[in-house]
């Protein structure tokens, strides 16, 4: 391991110690500062393979992913409440959420990749792990899949309640976005109704739990349906769980895309067997900034990459919004 990788790991471990000592992970200046440092530390492309790190570092990574998930949940709940209580039409004010531009671009990326493997817009989509601020479903339904019905699944009833209140203010989306309080592993027959299933990055925070969710989807999704997952690559795997193509038993992996800029999540697209046969390629493909990215079983055409613009710098959380109590 090189000096740069060792320095990065030391920095991540240092930030972890500071985050784990906080009394709460609800939005505040200290929480914002530490998670911004963590993200900026992990974003630069890195050859780190987290599975080969020392056991102590791997344990810290597992704990850090859970802390990131908890903080993300608090942040979304805060802004969902803020938007819902402050505006008559909250969906017109989503740009108040500090990372809304990131969701716009990630959703555009996922839609573009989906189009590479689906000739028609899906009639029904499931989003697993939608949370209190279901931005992916809202953005896709508003900007890209304008006739599609979205069924959003979350295990937390309060998250669904907040999300449903936001969407209820929009005459179109209130008829196309539905919310179900369920552990996805308890959902069986309904899964056959969806042509596309999105799996949020933080559904299944360790390899075993993620594998159980994927196995359940492989059992109950419709043959030929598409599964879209968010993963992580390099140092970004300190922020989110990693899904490898080999984890997708029961699916044919169609493409794996590892961005090389501020887009944190990798995108993995797979089709449930049986599906039309696909050839694989071992050639490298180009990342968003033109950097060669790791090869996947079937690679994203470069023309798709050229359509996606690089992310803007990360936004800071609005201090006034944080200080407002609800």
Whole-number tally of structural domains: 2
Shape: globular
How does CATH name the architecture of the largest domain? Answer: 3-Layer(aba) Sandwich
Overall residue-averaged pLDDT value: 84
Helix content: 40-55%
**What are the low-pLDDT stretches, counting only 5+ consecutive residues below 50?**
275-326
Q: DSSP strand (E) fraction?
A: 5-15%
User: Ends: how far apart?
Assistant: 47 Å
CATH overall fold name of the largest domain: Rossmann fold
Total beta-strand segments: 9
Q: Largest sheet, described in full?
A: 7 strands, mixed
The CATH H-level homologous superfamily of the largest domain: Vaccinia Virus protein VP39
What is the spatial order of strands in the main beta sheet? 3-2-1-4-5-7-6
According to CATH, what is the class of the largest domain? Alpha Beta
Provide a count of the helices: 10
Which secondary structure elements does this structure contain, and how are they paired or packed?
Layout (H helix, E strand, L loop, with lengths): L2 H18 L8 H14 L12 H32 L13 H18 L6 E5 L6 H10 L4 E6 L2 H11 L5 H4 E5 L14 E4 L7 H14 L5 E6 L19 E7 L8 E7 L12 E2 L5 E2 L8 H5 L12 H5 L3
Parallel strand pairs: 1-2, 1-4, 2-3, 4-5
Antiparallel strand pairs: 5-7, 6-7, 8-9
Helix pairs in contact: 1-2, 1-3, 3-6, 4-5
């Amino acid at each position: 391991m090189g000096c740069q990788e060792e320095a990065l790991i030391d920095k991540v471990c240092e930030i972890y110690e500071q985050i784990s000592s906080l009394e709460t992970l609800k939005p505040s200046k200290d929480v914002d500062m530490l998670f911004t440092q963590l993200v900026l530390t992990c974003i630069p492309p890195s050859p780190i393979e987290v599975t080969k790190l020392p056991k102590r570092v791997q344990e810290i990574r597992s704990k850090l992913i859970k802390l990131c998930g908890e903080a993300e949940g608090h942040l979304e709940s805060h802004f969902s409440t803020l938007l819902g209580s402050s505006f008559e039409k909250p969906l017109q004010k989503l740009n108040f959420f500090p990372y809304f531009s990131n969701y716009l671009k990630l959703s555009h990326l996922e839609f573009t990749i989906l189009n590479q493997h689906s000739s028609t817009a899906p009639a029904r989509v499931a989003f697993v792990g939608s949370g209190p601020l279901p931005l992916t479903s809202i953005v896709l339904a508003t900007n890209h899949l304008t006739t599609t019905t979205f069924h959003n699944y979350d295990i937390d009833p309060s998250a669904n309640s907040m999300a449903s209140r936001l969407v209820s203010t929009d005459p179109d989306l209130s008829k196309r976005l539905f919310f179900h309080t369920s552990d996805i592993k308890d959902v069986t027959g309904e899964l056959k109704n969806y042509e596309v299933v999105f799996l949020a990055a933080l559904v299944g925070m360790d390899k075993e739990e993620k594998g159980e969710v994927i196995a359940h989807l492989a059992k109950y999704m419709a043959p030929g349906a598409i599964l879209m997952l968010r993963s992580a690559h390099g140092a970004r795997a300190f922020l989110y769980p990693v899904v490898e193509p080999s984890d997708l038993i029961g699916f044919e992996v169609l493409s794996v895309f590892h961005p090389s800029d501020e887009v944190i999540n990798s995108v993995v697209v797979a089709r449930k067997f049986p599906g039309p046969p696909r050839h694989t390629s071992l050639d490298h493909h180009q990342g968003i900034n033109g950097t060669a990215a790791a090869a996947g079983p079937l690679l994203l055409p470069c023309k798709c990459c050229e359509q996606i613009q690089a992310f803007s710098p990360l936004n800071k959380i609005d201090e006034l919004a944080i200080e407002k109590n609800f």
